[in-house]
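DATA SHEET
Item: assembly model
Revision: 1
Owner: S.N.
Input lines:
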Amino acid sequence: ASHADSSVKLQLQWVTQAQFAGYYVALEKGYYEEEGLEVEILPGGPDIAPPQVLAGGGADAMLNWMPSALAAREKGLPVVNIAQPFKSSGLMLTCWKDTGIEGPQDFKGKTIGVWFFGNEYPFLSWMSQEGISTDGGEDGVTVLKQGFNVDPLIQRQADCISTMTYNEYGQVLDAGVSEDELVTFKYEDMGVATLEDGIYVLEENLEDPAFKEKMVKFVRASMKGWKYAEENPDEAAGIVLDYDETGAQTEAHQVRMMGEIAKLTAGSNGALDPADYQRTVDTLLAGGSDPVITAAPEGAYTLEITDEALD
Amino acid sequence: MISAKSLDLTFETNDGPVHALKGVDLDIGKGEFVSFIGPSGCGKTTFLRCIAALETPTGGELTVNGMTPENARQARAYGYVFQAAGLYPWRTIAGNIKLPLEIMGFSKAEQKKRVEQVLELVDLAGFGGKFPWQLSGGMQQRASIARALSFDADILLMDEPFGALDEIVRDHLNEELLKLWARTGKTIGFVTHSIPEAVYLSTKIVVMSPRPGRITDVIDSPLPKERPLDIRDTPEFLEIAHRVREGLRAGHAYD
Amino acid sequence: MISAKSLDLTFETNDGPVHALKGVDLDIGKGEFVSFIGPSGCGKTTFLRCIAALETPTGGELTVNGMTPENARQARAYGYVFQAAGLYPWRTIAGNIKLPLEIMGFSKAEQKKRVEQVLELVDLAGFGGKFPWQLSGGMQQRASIARALSFDADILLMDEPFGALDEIVRDHLNEELLKLWARTGKTIGFVTHSIPEAVYLSTKIVVMSPRPGRITDVIDSPLPKERPLDIRDTPEFLEIAHRVREGLRAGHAYD
Amino acid sequence: MMRTIFPVAVVVAVIVGLWYAACIPMNIHTAATQAERAGMVIDPEGAAERRDMGAIALALRNTGIWGDTWAQDKPRLPAPHQVVTELWETTVEKKVTSKRSLIFHGWVTLSATLLGFGIGTVAGILLAVGIVHSRAMDMSVMPWAIASQTIPILAIAPMIIVVLNSVGLQGLIPKAIISAYLSFFPVVVGMVKGFRSPSQMQIDQMRTWSASRSQTFWKLRLPASMPYLFASLKIGIAASLVGAIVGELPTGAVRGLGARLLTGSYYGQTIQIWSALFATAILAAVLVAAVAAMERATLKRMGVGR
Amino acid sequence: MGLVIAALVIWGLAWWMNIRIANGAQADTKGAKLAVPAIFGLTLLVMWELIVRGLDVPMVILPAPSLIVVRFADSLPILWADFVQTVVKGALSGYVIGCAAAFVTAILVDRSDFLRRGLMPVGSFVAALPIVGTAPILVMWYGFDWQSKAAVVVVMVFFPMLVNITAGLQETTQMQRDQMKTWAAGYWQSFWTLRLPAAMPFVFNGLKISSTLALIGAIVAEFFGSPIVGMGFRISTSVGQLALDMVWAEILVAALAGSAFYGVVALIERKVTFWHPSQRG
Ligand SMILES: Nc1ncnc2c1ncn2[C@@H]1O[C@H](COP(=O)(O)OP(=O)(O)OP(=O)(O)O)[C@@H](O)[C@H]1O
Ligand SMILES: Nc1ncnc2c1ncn2[C@@H]1O[C@H](COP(=O)(O)OP(=O)(O)OP(=O)(O)O)[C@@H](O)[C@H]1O
Ligand SMILES: [Mg+2]
Ligand SMILES: [Mg+2]
């Protein structure tokens, strides 16, 4: 494909929500236009594997969690991280307090909901670090493939479920559960956090200077959007709401989400911190019997784009 | 045995009422062989169905064996043979004949005995294990007659039982039917379209005409009980046939 | 007109070969009315289908109008009337009669003219706009004959055309058919199961017998061309009928 | 007409009654928690206490909050009037251009359905023509057409989308193709039956007139297949609708009834899910009724309808 | 490009071969009836392989059949476990329950004309509810394990079965019912000896349709929550892991299981409705 034109298609990894506020703000506020770009944002969903879309040429850039992106790299799809707007991880396990769970070792014999679709990697490596099997039984945890809402916890089909600080956790509270009934384990605190929501492109495309140029502009404008969103969460939530074509989102929900998201993007100027990268890779390599990646990847990120963009 | 007095039957249809039977008077005595003949739609089938309590007359009186037709049906007073053999393809011939016996609660041994008996009677011994579709049309029709005979009711009602068969097979079955009638002494009501068939078989021929369905002629046959097939070439036979044909033509509006 | 010499036709089936026709010799002259009669399965239909080039004989010779049957079919030498009327329910009577004309590429005007002509011929003038299901069985069969006549072939082949009709309607159509034959002088091949029908209509009666299908008797009828319905009660008629029946019975293995 | 309306009304009334009754145990736990927060006395006290309690027992001990179970914000089972209200608000009260209007989403789904239905029907008919006229096709295609229908469409839909995406097809077309995939099969099966429905006699009749293959097709096989065509179109259009909805999920779930269902389920918006569900069923009923009306009109014009 | 052209050539050759066989003297033998579709299917596979290789389609978009077969052979234990979870536990149990429920309902509907007129239109409306909407609800109600999958299958097969059984029970002719009347048979007598056997062709039609529906329903329901075993689970997570060869291996299992399921039902149909003209051939 020719990259000489000015169009950029961005594949999100989930439906339109405040998690992606920065990009929608940049679009709405004309930051992309200022850079001379025509950006199209493609919402995702549970059935969409962004790397697949990228491989098929349906998008120029994608958002992805790093474990998933590294796994794709090992599968022979060379994707490269060019920017990392999210500094910290919003992933956590939320458990009922009355199950008696106080620490990770108490997970044994319990049922835990996990998302999969790439989100399972940090969980699996955490469990293997704790030495807990994931095949069920007395000494292991029983893993459920959780749907994309919080019903399993509310219905007590699971003792713990995966939640994002900015989304599902709020839904649990919305369902009438009070915070003191719950115990939460943030991956960030457990030392098994992996990088979320980075911007990735295909390695071969980066060989084209025109494409690189375009990405520089794209990252610059996107980060501008993110910073604006951090400072004006209510307005950002409103913009997201306007772009949600399903009309399914509610304002209260998006405002709260934006507030939580701002905490995650806060520490980042868009450039990937190699230390964070290393921690992610280490976590994944510790993955035990079902490793996400078998060897430390080479060239899975580049700082060139952000260096140029942030000058 | 069977007695109808000014019987009426009107079907209510979308296009208005259809007078299928109007003022039908008829008495059928025990052991008679009565044929009904008439153009299509004249109410032959309807009349037979009234006797069998498959239709309810809208007027007049009808008794079968001195009871109402409904009671006669419950008392299993008659066997009914439909135009098509109507055997169940998923049962063997023997299974088909056994069916009414099962329903009526005969013992297993009795069922077996009777099936053999009637198979013999209709010349189908040895075919009990076959399925209906493995038999020719004539054989199927005989099996269907055997089924109606199996529970040995006094009355046998037959609605164009040989309509679908070729002439030779038909001749043959007519002969057989006469023999059977002579042997069992049953009362038979028989619907047909064929003049020679009606004349050949019956002690009484009822000629009907349509719109509304009514009886135009009742002919008592002077033919002897013993009837070889050749009887159809005799002048007496031809005379009755002629009378029937005239009666038919009188009541017939083409198409 | 039609000439068969030691014609053979064997169907290969799963249960082995079926000899539908074996050594059939027959000559049909121009303007003859030939009936084929015989028990079920004796090959009447098969023989008619051979003439119509719907089956291919496996032996012997067959010419139609001096050509091979296939060529005769291409030359549209005959009209064929099947047992059931087989009219298309989605076409009016006129549309049905027009169908072969459309296929044969007649002009619109010519189509219209011929449809009117043949409707007249079979006494259905005025019914062209009706749909088949709005007509009685007898009228449908007449329409089907009209369709076979519409393109005015020299030969008319009819396979039990009146099999499904009641006797009175049948008598009536027989009379009509004779008139039509007299008027048009066509050569007619006619399959039937009914002895009176065969005798009443034909100048030549071909009696066949089955397994293998062959001709057992060919009877030239001495009856005059002019035939009122009453002719069926005359001794000559009965004599021929008797001969046909004997011929049939000889070749008939029950069922 | 009355003969159907009354029984249907009775059955619907019974179902609605059962539905309301079912809402009580289904939603009682959350209703109790909310009522307690609002200051009511609930027996037993405390959400943790009630957690392991049977829903029916809880409902019987707190008859006072039954009303609340029918007015939840995100109920496990929404009450009928909630669904109806939502349907009303999102169809009648919203502008059709609004993205909160079900009519807007219904139209998006409908357009993919109709296009897919068109493609599927044409493909199905062509395939059936081939099968009827070529023995080789008859023998080779049919078993595989059956096998193709045992593949779960939801599994391959994303792949179809990606593959088409990589050759530059986006938006309506991929959805329509998935929808066509589901609708072609009933059409093939029905039309093969239909094209073969003329009796041997009718075909022989055509031969006696030396009709060509195409004449036989146009004048006999095609008109004879009409009743079969419409029977399979009715199945096909319902299948198309399902296909269009399935196709919406992996296209980013942006618009359409399928997207509505999916996003509703992410956020536990049960009322929204149920109203989208009913909207789909209503749409299906309307589409089938439309085909049935077409059928009646066509058959009447052909003189077959009485 | 060469490989693509080779694919087209092979297509042409295979087609020519099939036409030869299908119109040849042996066309009606068992061998030909197997060979023709087999050649057709093989050709499709070979073309797929050649085109994928010829056009260099990335594995993460469409893997070549050879890769799928290798993955299939390597993953037999996993595939077997998934098969048991989804097909045996989910699909089969739901199928049995759904068909049984439809049968009982059909008898109720048959006995009461009021119920028929009331229930059938409502039922057809309910049947139009799309599975992608009902599955999440049922998973929410019945939990993550196979029970909820079975529930989805029950919902999917119930109505097609009901329609077919009811239609089948109407299948007797007026004459056959009259005949029963002349013998003064009761409801159940004529049900067991006449109406049920006569309904069998319809019942099997429903069973065949439902067999594919059951499988699809069980797989799709797993997309909305499941334990970490099952064909739907494996498909959806493998897509996330870009293990497309695994996805296709599962699809292969689904197609094999579906065809086998269908085949078994068709075989039983042959045995039970041996008397029906369509089975006598
Ligand atoms: N169930 C019905 N509803 C309305 N009309 C009916 C019904 N059954 C019969 N008829 C009408 O009643 C009349 C007599 O019918 P019936 O079947 O008794 O005639 P038939 O003499 O047996 O004729 P066929 O020789 O054709 O059998 C006909 O006009 C027929 O249309
Ligand atoms: N296509 C076929 N394949 C195999 N056998 C056939 C075929 N057509 C006819 N036959 C057999 O050929 C024999 C003659 O059949 P044909 O139809 O000519 O009899 P028919 O005299 O017309 O009988 P009917 O009076 O019953 O119409 C029969 O035994 C029949 O079973
Ligand atoms: Mg009658
Ligand atoms: Mg014949």
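QC remark: Residues 2-57 of chain E form one domain.
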